[in-house]
Amino acid sequence: MEEKEKGRESPKTPPGSPSHQPPPPPPPAGPSRTSRAPRAFGSQVTPPPPPPTSTNQDSG
Fold first, then answer.
1. For labelling, which of 13, 35, 44, 46 has a CA lying 20 to 30 Å from the CA of 2?
2. Count of CB atoms within 10 A of residue 34's CB?
3. pTM score over 0.85
4. Cα distance between residue 12 and residue 14, in whole Å
5. Of residues 48 and 10, which shows the higher confidence score?
6. Given its phi and psi angles, is residue 4 left (phi above 0), alpha (psi -120 to 50 degrees) or beta?
7. Alpha-carbon distance 60 to 39, whole Å?
8. Residue 40: which residues within 8 A CB-CB, separation 6 or more?
């Protein structure tokens, strides 16, 4: 049964994807420093309204 070694055939990464892909770029330092002053950030940008209770208006 071990002779097949089917596990070795299929690597963790899916076929076609480069196993040696570079890591994602770091986030911009812009919003990073704004978090230091939450009072200023919240004053300029208000949180988005809650989602509509009725799914009917979801399309609109």
1. 13
2. 13
3. no
4. 6
5. 48
6. alpha
7. 33
8. 34
* Residue whose pair of structure tokens reads 């570079």 in the numeric block: 22
How does pLDDT run across 39-57, given as a tens digit for each residue? 555 555 666 777 777 766 6
Distances (CA, A) of 20 to 13, 17, 26, 30: 10, 9, 18, 29
CB count in 10 Å sphere of residue 41: 13
Nearest to 13 by CA among 24, 23, 21, 4: 21
Alpha helices, DSSP H, located in the chain: 6-9, 29-34, 38-44
Q: What tokens appear for 10 in the block?
A: 């299929």
Per-residue model confidence (pLDDT) at position 38: 57
